[in-house]
Design a protein that fits this description.
Number of strands: 11
Organism: Phytoactinopolyspora halophila
Radius of gyration: 22 Å
Keywords: Transport
CATH architecture of the largest domain: 3-Layer(aba) Sandwich
Family: Belongs to the bacterial solute-binding protein 1 family.
CATH topology of the largest domain: D-Maltodextrin-Binding Protein, domain 2
Helix content: 25-40%
Number of domains: 2
Protein name: Carbohydrate ABC transporter substrate-binding protein
Number of helices: 20
InterPro entries: Bact_solute-bd_prot1, SBP
Amino acid sequence: MARSNARRSAVATGCVLGLSFFLASCGDDGGGDDSDNTDAAGDVDCSEFEQYTEEYGDLEGTEVTIYSTITPPEDEPHIESYVPFEECTGVDVVYEHSDEFEAQLQVRINGGNPPDIAYVPQPGLLETIVQDTGAPVPAPEGVEENVDEFFSEDWKEYGTIDGTFYAAPLGSNVKSFVWYSPTTFEANGYEVPETWDDLIALSDQIVDDGGVPWCQGIASGDATGWPATDFIEDILLRTAGPEVYDQWYQHEIPFNDPQVVDAVDQAGEILKNPDYVNGGFGDVSSIATTDVNQAGLPILEEQCYLHRAASFYAPNWPEDAEIAEDGDVYAFYLPAIEEEFGDPVLGAGEFTVAFDDRPEVQAFQEYVSSAEWANDKAELGGWVSANTGVELDNYQDPISRLSAELLQDDDAVFRFDASDLMPGDVGAGSFWTGMVDWITGAETEEVLTQIEETWPEE
């Protein structure tokens, strides 16, 4: 079978990075007898992939390009998960990541050079691209069948524009987490807060003890500002409830509705409180220039104690940091605020959008929408899916299992990231930049009014 260059071009070589790639990816051409349908590396049962060659034909020697927001180190398990597909179908999967994805994807589309597949993290951006360019290709039948079987109707709807199904969910995440150090908490006599009042009381206690409770960062290249939008959305769900939340992202109420103003101000009681932030980095304004991937690391040095970030933050911790309930770092659920709204869960995910309908592209789309791939991917760790075909025991770390349980809980009040559902010019544009202005000193109502004025005319 063809050997993939994707692993090398995207992340140097798998051997250097210590990824557990199959032997073939580290320079062994495999040789040997494939008559038993098992790859020469000894780990791949290629009989599981015959369905793709039967449905889509001989794929040997073809190439599929992937463009994604998933950057190192989170991308390493992704790249590894494609190896069986490459080995057994002969397709070379070329992976490219960017922290300027939202802007550059549209540049590439407009320039006539889109990737074969993009992992789009914003349904609102997908809608904008479909309506403005017509470039995305509807998902093939095999993908739709997988989504109908393994995902809820809500998740399918996120990938459907004007009645046409384009994009299957890929990964998912839970954003309603606060990271902390269990060992540090135990040493200082701190307890995990169960209510919002407890969370504020804990923050005050840390200040009284001479510490800085929170560390945050919203710098992320062209996407700078997005972590603050998550914080606002989590608070709005807890103060105004899911119905108002839905009205907000659907623009049934204005962006600067008083309920939204109140939520942003409540978030500001943490994010713009000079006594609370920005532990390990500087004053409040340093949040705007602190890299999102580095923002939580001062927890390990006791320069801060609390960092609100999603489940996907886990790979940013050093390899020698134990992530466990009694380890160096772990996460707790961001407490509810108003009892009437229950325990809301904010989450998000990526969607697999194709810009070409070549057989190899459709085969790869179907593969990554399957329960088989999702289970294999879960076993690599650091990743979560809303795919109900994934066995919870396959998740390799406690944060992933906890996240998956929340995603699969029928009683959970789950809402997708609102900025990702808004029109791209707002959700991936003015909302992001507005949060930078807000963090660096602009008043809440001024910022929200400016964002409201950018909402596309209907």
